[in-house]
Amino acid sequence: LQLVESGGGLVQPGGSLRLSCATSGSTLEEYATGWHRQAPGKEREAVACISSSGRSTNYADSVRGRFTMSRDTAKNVVYLQMNNLRPEDTAVYYCRFLGIGGDYWGQGTQVTVSS
């Protein structure tokens, strides 16, 4: 299973970005999907996740109310809409698919929030 991320970049504080993670060869209903991030000198942390059924979505306290995770099962793509970005959101963001078939990670996309 290959995961291909896109959408990172440089944005000013208060701005928005949308990350995408596309896959082929499987369907989203087989996996719980999530976004994680890792800032320089810090451990990787979970940001948001959607259950395999799609009925449950959870967020880290630090992003709740600003980030929205969604998925398109027809396209096999998951998204992370990030609004009101802060400098502390700067990190490499990774998508993750976790299921009976295995534990898969994307290559990461850099998000930098700076004026």
- Low-pLDDT parts are none
Class from secondary-structure proportions: mainly beta
Largest sheet: 7 strands, mixed
Number of strands: 11
- Structure annotation, total helices: 0
What string gives the helices and strands in order?
EEEEEEEEEEE
> Which shape, going by the Cα principal axes?
globular
Average the pLDDT over all residues and give the rounded result.
95
Strand content: over 45%
Radius of gyration from the CA trace? 13 Å
Q: Helix content range of the residues, please?
A: under 10%
Write structural notes for this entry.
- By secondary structure, the protein is mainly beta.
- Helices cover 0% and strands 55% of the residues.
- It starts with a strand and ends with a strand.
